[in-house]
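We now fix the convention by which a protein and its fold are recorded. These numbers are not coordinates but entries in a learned vocabulary of local backbone shapes. A record is reproduced here so that you can trace the correspondence yourselves:
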Amino acid sequence: MLEELLIHKPDDPIQYMINHLKQNNDDAPRICVLGPPASGKTTVAMWLCKHLDAIRISQETLLFKEILALTREAKTYKERKQKIPNALWANLIQERLSNVDCIKQGWILEGFPENQEQAWMLQSSGIIPRHVVVLYAPDTALIERNSGKRLDPFTEEVYHTTFDWPSDPLIQQRLVKPEDLSEQEMSKKLVEYHRNFPGVFQIYQKVLKSINADQPSMDVLSQVRTYVQTRHRSAAPFTPRILFCGPPGSGKSLQAALIAQKYSVVNICCGQLLKEAVADKTKLGELIKPYIDNGYPVPDNLVMKILAERLNALDCMTNGWVLYGFPRDIEQGEQLQKSHIIPNRVFFFNLPCESIMERLSQRRIDPVTGERYHMTFRPAPAPEIQVRLRQNPRDKEENIEKRVETYYRNVKELEDFYEDAIYVNADQDPHVVFEFIESCIIKPLPCKKLKSL
């Protein structure tokens, strides 16, 4: 419904939503079945319509089975053997999909869009599929398949002289060979398809599934059914859920504080959260106290209980959150997911080992005031303060090396788990890092391979 509001921008949004709830079925299928010639689009589309009770729409049905206002104009182009304009196709489809049966039952759009311009026109008309199935097979297999293709003019079902011949003699007798099936014509269509498909893929890649059509038809249909039954979960950050991962000393806490301050999200450090639970003497705090006092890792199940309770609190649910310090490995990441704690922005901070060592090994703390200093970047302002500074045992070089080694031992699997993560060069000015992170939070999800700093 929100999608429809953003597209149509009605003058009276309340009445629009009321009417939408009365007539629309948001669970109805909206599927595009695409692929090169002879890949089996018609077979898949008709099978989906039968099993989902949806309406099949194709260029053939629009021209020869529908009585629409624009049908005559499109047929005129066809009769002159001229190419039907993309805008006319888009308007035809929009008119058909606005009918009650398509709204109530859903639709399967077969073989359209064929190029990027058509896809953009569909989107601008508010026609946005939930699933796009793309069939593929080697060109040699498609050409072979095409030569044996036969059509039942009564049911429009497609058969093949070798791979899918009907057992009913009556059906066999009425099968006809479709037009324009010469090998030369087929080759031209394949070249055109391969030229246009990358543009279509670029638009629909978030909802697109490629399925190998060069296998038994039941295997193809099974894979198609499994995919169209999935529900896509939007990763758009209407409520920011931000996760920072990175080695010690990479600046996660500073960036989290800057993000929390500017966007009023809840800043959550997992380690600090555990200490607060101990200090507050909660039941879970009492359980984890022996681990913290003795310097042992707190069991993941206890960490998850404390973390889930905090992230499900009202302020986190309404304002959003930025989390760091957890997960540290693939098992913890999977536990987060099982608890339905799914970030919509994940950042991995990258920093050379020598920079990590320089940042951490020179950190000092004033035991009197609690003020933190750095021997190079933020030295103590007076000699008497310099004398009393102390180093946290965690910041000794041998301990830093162990922590860094542990991080890099686990990070590869965690990066694979969060495949849409964004990678940040943390070895630069903190404000430059912040500007990059901010740009990634307020913009749509970037592609992992393209968006990096």
